[in-house]
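HUMAN:
Just now I want nothing more than another pair of eyes on a protein record. I would be glad if you read both lines and explained how they fit together. I have put the entry right below:
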Amino acid sequence: MTATFRGAGDLGYRTAPFSPSPEHDVLANCLYIVTGDDFDVLIFSSNGQLVRVVRNGGEREAVSEEHRTAWIDDVLGQVPEAARAQARRAVEHIPTPEELPVYNDVVVDAYGYV
């Protein structure tokens, strides 16, 4: 989650806190994609056809108060001191999802291991 300060007390967000974000990597002629909201890794050929779905099991982790506090601290660390009180009031009211994203990156090694 990234916040950027634009001046005059305005905070702009690229995505909502803890939002899943699609990520990808490439190996040879295949594109590996994760959506962040499930455990699957989608593998596409260079012509765009789905070649394989790697299904990984697991349980999604709940967003805890510690996650939220760390996120707020990170946001406020990017805001000038004079604007922090106003920024805190703004970000403390931003709703968060109940669960963390499954993935925040995907990396494929030279052997095709994800």
User: Anything to note?
Assistant: The CA atoms of residues 63 and 100 lie 6 Å apart. The longest helix spans residues 65-77. The chain is about 20% helix and 25% strand.
